[in-house]
């Protein structure tokens, strides 16, 4: 007999989603306007398209590795990203854009920023993939974007952090936010590995396709903010550095995966996740990496640490801290992000001739990291507590990692 799944989403998802959309439409009607076109529209639109593909195609397909959760992984990623870009435009306009005019301007620059914020929410979503329903994911994503933009505002207002540096902390913020939500919402019954939490050859192939889209377009993602600031030379250096770092990461992740295997074989999960670590690390250290060998060394170090972390730390996080990270976000974004922050600090200290200035910068740099991590953990805790309310009807353990709880599948898909 077929299993009986949870009640339909009619009483929750449409109510929450359409209510949020109604609120957004009202806010856009009173506070948002489309700005006039710009001369370099074709060029910035090309950058926007690259970031657009990453967010809506790359992250969505990368999460389809779960054999019975492909519809949900791709569909919920689309739903979350589509909702968060709207909220991100509003939050960014209210807090981070100088209010020289009453209306928030929507242009290609603001759309690129909004999609970068959406990427941060999708990173956080990876920790909870398969364990919560789409209503949970929407609320989690909106709170993550809110927390990240507030963190940016605090860094830029109180610590005078450059906008580029505060934006590229999205990997660290999203990873630690998601990890904390996972800790708060942890429950027995899904350890050590859920019966449906497994990879199949076809699902692994689709997931690898998403990784390739991310890998190909990551240089555009890292340089998008610089292009919006019209820093063409810096953008060119960032593209080259990111490309070299990603190339080295791919080779290193494959090699370390073989070394970590008792049978001397390549683990697809290691490769498709950890080959992106170089791009993450370069993003956080984006303002100081300007030599090819530095970028390549960064990619090697990032892939090495990420692969070892994915192989050994992910399981121990679950056993030691009750943290079940479905996609290994901590290993792919969190730890490589911290590595990028360390590389930024080390390079700045080595080029400083004044010891006093170096010490002050170190204290300043450490303060930025601690503020970001503390803010992400605090927002993650608040979000986890909010999502614990029974009103959201979390799925039962046996219904985790399964599309049939939320989607019409098999023969139902073609029935009217």
TrEMBL record:
The keyword Transmembrane helix applies. This is Ammonium transporter AmtB-like domain-containing protein. It comes from Denticeps clupeoides (denticle herring). The keyword Transmembrane applies. Functions as an ammonia transporter. May play a role in the elimination of ammonia in the gill. GO terms for cellular component: plasma membrane. GO terms for biological process: ammonium homeostasis. The gene is rhd. The chain crosses the membrane at residues 12-31, 51-71, 78-97, 103-125, 137-155, 167-187, 199-221, 241-259, 271-289, 295-313, 325-351, 363-389. Coiled coil: none annotated. It is found in: Membrane. Gene3D superfamilies: Ammonium transporter AmtB like domains. It is a multi-pass membrane protein. Residues 43-388 form the Ammonium transporter AmtB-like domain.
